[in-house]
Amino acid sequence: MSAAAIAKNLRPEVTEFLSSGPLKMFIGGEWVEAAKKDTFETRNPGTGEVLAEVASGAAEDVDRAVKRAREAFRNSGWATLPANDRAVILHRLADLVDKNRETLAQIESLDVGKPFAQAFGGDVPNIAQTLRYYADLSVHVRKREPIAVSGHEAYTARFPYGVCAFIIPWNFPLLLLGWGISPALATGNTVVVKPAEDTPLSALYFCKLAKQAGIPDGVLNIVPGYGHTAGAALAAHPGIRRMSFTGSPEVGRKIAEACGANLVAVKLELGGKGAAVLFDDIDVDDAAGKLAGAITLNAGQVCCTATRWLVHESIWDKFIDSATGKLAHMRIGVGLDSNTELGPVVSAKQKQRVLGYLKKGAAEGAKTILEGGEAEVPGFGGGYYVKPALMTGSPDNVCAREEIFGPVAYLMPFKSEDEAVDLVNRSNYGLANSVWSSDLERAHRVAESMVAGNSWINAHNVFQHGIPYAGCNLSGVGGGVLGPDTLLDYLRPQSIVRPT
Predict the structure, then answer these.
(1) Which of 22, 194, 422, 437 is the most exposed place for a label (fewest CB within 10 A)?
(2) pLDDT tens, position by position, 372-382
(3) Residue 269: active-site member
(4) Domain 3-270+476-496 falls in which CATH fold?
(5) Which CATH superfamily is domain 274-464 in?
(6) Where are the chain's structural domains?
(7) Which of 164, 197, 207, 269 is catalytic?
(8) DSSP assignment letter at 342
C-alpha cells in the first residue's frame, strides 16, 4: 500500500484532528495552549514524517492542571456522585470509544506504528472493557465495613483521595491510559495525565469523547510534554495524592524519589525481561508460532513479553527451525497496511537502541540464529523498521540480561527443570514468565517457582480483567493493575469509632 493510498483511506475525523493546527492540551474541560506557547512534533514511525504538532507542557501547565483537578474534586460533584451514577457516565464513555473504534485505531496505528488490526482488535476495545469493568466493580464496593471490637461502634469508611497523576508510556498509550485512569475515575478521583511525547495523540482524542460523555470539567486533564519538564513537574507536585508511572527502572527511581519527598504513594510498572520455558513434551510448532507472535507484537515493544526462550535440549533444533521459519517470513510494513504483521518501532531513537543491542550482544560473543537488523519497506524509506532477530549464547550476555524492547529473543538450552528455573530467576526483573508443557503438574510447579508478578502456562501475554497484573524486583512496586484490588488503591480508608 502506498502513502497516498493510506492517506486516502483515513477517516475524515482523523484527517481533521491531525490537520487542525497545533494540538492543544486539555485542562479544566478546555483546549488550551502551553503557557510558554511551546510545541513539539510527533512523527509517524512508518514514514519518519511529522504527524502533528502538539502543545508542550511545563511546570506552569502542570500546576494549572492540578489546580483545576483539585477544584473539580471539591466542587464538580464527581467525588460525591453515587457510584452507580458515575458508572453510567463511564459506560457512556465506553460506548463512545466503541463507536469511534476505527478512528481511535487509525490514530494509534499512525502514532505508535503498530498494525491497525492490533489497535482495532486489541488496544481500543480494551480501554472500553476496562472502563466498564471498573465502573461495574465500583458499584459493588462497600463504602462502610464494620469492625468488631469490644465496647465500641466502629467501621471503616472509604473515600476518594483527590488528584491522581499518571505518566503513560509510548508503547500502549491508549490501552494503558485506560488501565490507569479507569479505577481512579470510577472511585470519584480526578486525574492529571502526562502522555508520552512520542505518542500523545490518542489520549488527546480520548478527551473529546470524555467531554461528550459528560465527564465534568476538570475531572480529566491531559498535559502533553517532555518527561524532564512536564513529567518531572507532575511527579513532584505537592497537590497530587496518588502517582502511577509506567516506564523504565531508571526513570521510575526518579519518580519515586520525587513522590517520596511529598510522601505521595506511587505505583511503578517498570518493564521486564520475560522468559518462556519450553519442555520436551510440547507441540513445538504451536509454541514456536505463539512465541514468534509474542516478540513481534507491537514490534516487541511490550514490557512483559517473552524475550528469553529457554528450550529443552532435546527439541532445540526442531524449535529453532520452526521459529526461524515463522519469523523470517513475517510481513514487515507500515501499520495501516492490512497486510502488515510487524510494524516499525516507535522512533529513530528506539530503532538505534535495538540495532545497538544486536551489536553489543555479538561483541560479547552471542551467536546469531536469525539475523535481524534494519528492514527496508519500499515506499517508506524514512520509517523505523527492524527485522526480527534470534540470538543464543551465555546467560551473562547483555542481550540475555537487559531489556531491548524490540523484536529480539535470546535462546538458551537447558537439560533439567532445576536448571531452567535457575536461568529464569537470574534476572533482576520480575514481571512475567511462561512455562510450556503438557505435564500440568510440572507446569504449575515451575510457574510457582519463577519469581515474577505473573506466571502463564502454555501462553504468553495473557491479560484478563479481574486478574491482577503486577511486577516485583526491578519490574515494579506499589501494587498492580486490572485486578479488583486496584480499585481499592484509589479509595482512602478512614476508621470511624464511637465508644459505647
Answers:
(1) 422
(2) 999 999 999 99
(3) yes
(4) Aldehyde Dehydrogenase; Chain A, domain 1 (3.40.605)
(5) Aldehyde Dehydrogenase; Chain A, domain 2 (3.40.309.10)
(6) 3-270+476-496, 274-464
(7) 269
(8) B
